[in-house]
Amino acid sequence: MKKFLTISVILFLINSINTFSQNKREDLEYKFDVAKVVNDTSITYYGWDFRFLIFNDPKFPEAKDVIIKLLPGLRGIIDDRFGPEYMERRFLKKHFVYNPRAIQSLIKNVDEKSLVDIYRQPLSIDSVRSIVKSYPVNGKGLGAVIIADEMRKRDITVTAYVTIFDLESKEILYACKMNGKAGDKGSVARFYGKGVIYINSYFWRYYKKLYK
Known about the structure:
Blueprint: H1 2-23, E1 28-31, H2 34-39, E2 42-49, E3 54-56, H3 63-81, H4 84-91, E4 95-98, H5 101-104, H6 125-133, E5 142-152, E6 157-166, E7 172-181, H7 188-209
């Protein structure tokens, strides 16, 4: 009997560990050319690109919920807490340009229904690479953008790719796929805004390590 209980406990622990590992969504770094990220002295920050977002929340199933309720509130949170002064201090570059309109304005060309199409495939690093290649930007130095991937009510998660690329070639130099826990009280924007805040705040732990 004692042996049976011991085996049962071991099997339970193994199953619990496996379940935890499957449910835990780790941040994932892609280090293509860290030296260039560190050594370049200029960067242009383009803010968040929400065009490829998959918004999966049964309480807000309509595209108009995303356009009217979610995105304006998220932009307000981002602008208030992570404006140009905040981003300039953390990128550690001699020359900093803040140009959110160049990419954020492209959302006017998006079919709104695609934002709530939960059967679309989430972004991969290859699709992020194609997105960056398509950006109507130019110049020299680095570009930085945060590409929203998913916002899911089921596991209360916001996923996005923080991406740094070469402006001239539009090749990705570094990207970090991050998962922020949502769940703040209030509006739908505040609920998912907590995950956005996490990503904007905790990315710098990874970024600083590039300089070591």
